[in-house]
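Good day; I would like, with your permission, to put a structural problem before you. What I wish to show you is a protein chain and, alongside it, a tokenised description of its three-dimensional fold. Here, with my thanks, is the record as I have it:
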Amino acid sequence: MAITVAAPIAVASTPVPLANTWYTGGSTSVVSGNVARFTLTGDDGDGNDSVLPDNSTVVITPDAGVTIVNTAITGGVLTDNGDGSFTATVDSGVTTLVANFRVTGLSGANVSYVSTVALPPFTETFQIPIV
């Protein structure tokens, strides 16, 4: 999943406006007891890594009966929301946020991942099914 946001141009002679493209991604499925990965990253119009906007977030929410336990996070700070979900907030100056969670639950259940880049209107959702 991706969205492109045009960036302001500082020099009028730039022939093509550069744009940042933000990507959310992660495991396409997970076996109960294994680790699933969630990512948020971006690049500029030239294909170089792009710094994620400060205060961008990822909310990771399991279906009822599914448990997620964080095993690692890179590029952000993780908050336990107290209801089984977690919110990861991007650190300043990073190009990629990665969160790994051990997922336990019944086959067919999902873990939802909602990323919000702090540049409107970017919000994106996808689900990782337990197989």
